[in-house]
Design a protein that fits this description.
Elements lengths: L21 H18 L6 H8 L3 H7 L3 H10 L16 H17 L1 H16 L1 H28 L9 H17 L6 H11 L3
GO molecular function, one term: transcription cis-regulatory region binding
Keywords: DNA-binding, Transcription, Transcription regulation
InterPro entries: Homeodomain-like_sf (IPR009057), HTH-type_TetR-like_transc_reg (IPR050109), HTH_TetR (IPR001647), Tet_transcr_reg_TetR-rel_C_sf (IPR036271), TetR_C (IPR011075)
């Protein structure tokens, strides 16, 4: 559940209740984005979101089952901006791979981004259909790009030939995600150690 931009599309409408008011829906998403940046995910509440959006608590719960689902929709809709993409490939596969991993670790170490990762992980755990949307929006583009760079470095003979690029990408992303969720420090030195431990020849 790490942050690189990808597909954006509206999450599915809830099956129950009255149709959403687009104005109220947008107000809830905007309020969630503001409160998340000001107070963090742990202090984000449905009551606070409803008050800031100028809607009732019941209205929020009619459309979203939990605060995590609101955060997820705000990301998918682009109301909460994802970090920018890492540097484009330069034609030097090993350097490109190291650069990607260092950027991923630095992005995840940023407190605001770490908060967003934890919120999205909670949203995915709370809502199986929503998890698919979150994966296609956030996780899959990151995994695919990382696997592509690992494959390029493997083809160039820069990393171990026995590596399966997608499995290696899963291992790298899993390590960074674990530290993010567990509030364990992420440093440039950790990025290099992770690279050397899992990818170096």
């Amino acid at each position: 559940m790490l942050l690189l931009p990808g597909y954006r599309g509206r999450m599915s409408e809830p099956a129950r209740g009255r149709p959403r008011s687009e104005r109220s829906r947008r107000a809830v998403l905007d309020a969630t984005s503001t409160l998340l940046s000001e107070s963090g995910y742990e202090r984000l509440t449905i009551d606070g979101i409803a008050t800031a959006a100028g809607v009732s608590r019941q209205t929020v719960y009619r459309w979203w089952p939990a605060k995590s689902a609101i955060v997820a929709e705000a990301v998918v809709e682009g109301v909460i901006a994802l970090p920018s993409t890492p540097p484009a490939p330069t034609g030097h596969p090993l350097d490109d791979l190291r650069s990607f991993l260092r950027t991923l670790v630095a992005t995840s170490a940023d407190p605001a981004n770490a908060t967003l990762v934890r919120a999205l992980a909670a949203a995915a755990a709370d809502d199986a259909p929503g998890a698919s949307t979150i994966t296609s929006t956030v996780t899959a583009p990151t995994r695919d790009e990382l696997a592509s760079r690992i494959a390029a470095a493997t083809a160039a003979g820069d990393v171990r030939a026995s590596l399966d690029p997608r499995i290696a990408a899963d291992a790298l992303l899993g390590a960074v995600l674990f530290r993010t969720l567990a509030h364990i420090e992420l440093t440039p030195e950790y990025a290099d150690a992770l690279f050397d431990g899992l990818l170096a020849r």
